[in-house]
Known about the structure:
Layout: H1 3-8, H2 10-24, H3 35-42, H4 45-64, E1 80-81, E2 84-90, E3 99-106, E4 125-130, E5 137-139, E6 142-143, E7 148-153, E8 159-167, E9 176-184, E10 199-202, E11 205-211, E12 213-214, E13 217-227, E14 230-231, E15 244-249, E16 257-260, E17 274-281, E18 285-295, E19 298-309
Parallel strand pairs: 12-19
Antiparallel strand pairs: 1-2, 2-3, 3-7, 4-5, 4-8, 6-7, 8-9, 10-11, 11-13, 13-14, 13-17, 15-18, 16-17, 18-19
Helix pairs in contact: 2-4
Bound molecules: copper (II) ion (CU).
Amino acid sequence: MNVPVKLGLYGVGLVAAFAGALGAGTLTGPVLPGGPANASDDGAGGHGGAGGHAGTDGEGGTGGEGAGSGAVTPAGLQISDRGYTLEQVAAPEKAGKEGELSFRITGPDGEPVTGFRVEHEKRMHLIVVGRDTAGYRHLHPEMDEDGTWTVETGFDTPGPYRMFADFAPEGTEEGLVLGADLAVPGDYEPEPLPEIERAAEVDGYTVRLEGGLAAGGSGELDFTVTKDGEPVDDLEPYLGAYGHLVALRAGDLAYLHVHPHGEPGDGETEPGPGVRFTAEAPSPGEYRLFLDFKHDGKVRTAEFTAAAGEGGEGGGHGADGHGH
Ligand SMILES: [Cu+2]
């Protein structure tokens, strides 16, 4: 065993192990919400453990590149990817007080990126959510000429948050999602991950979910929006579709690739009550879904916890007595 080389490659090993873990979709033991509260369980050992893990997996990772398993690689787990880096993140420092959240993206040349493609009608989609998946919001910051993106927002409660910048630089084929941690000081009571449900209520609307996530592949998610028991068939376009879906893996908030089916005005996509998506889940386990939809001029978010099963169907158990 060549100790000096191994030490020298330590940093590389960390990266490789990380990529490997993603590629292989092995992050199946999610640290469930409440994780931060349980942090004392592995306390200081947590960091040592991560290092040891990197050391062992790193060697396999360097050879195998962590790819080729066919697994779906989620986005949003890294602050830097493919040469693009999320930096100069500044956020309101206190809970309960609005302020500016700002950041910029630097490119492979190290310079701030100012050229972004419009995707889903915007050049930048910013998602902010608690590490426990509470407090979700979907924002559209404005960019100044230096490439700094800014939006007004705030945090209702202290705690750890995650932000995701979802964008596509000009000249790239595929967009990317970079993630960074935000911390709002103060007493923090993590919310448990809500139970798996097939229906969500928001603002007098009921949204039902059929279909489900499939671990390691594409799953079909069919949402149906009703209000007072009546189907809502006049949804308004929002971000180039009749809904916008963000799906995050419980435990690490990996950000799933999601595609809406159809577009307003394509001649076949109805403005509700059904809104359909395909989403790629990297592993079995629980996920949190956030469906933004627009009706009567207002965007609302229906939130679900869903499980990705090995074969797809998450099992639409019980709880069905209440439909109409
Ligand atoms: Cu957006």
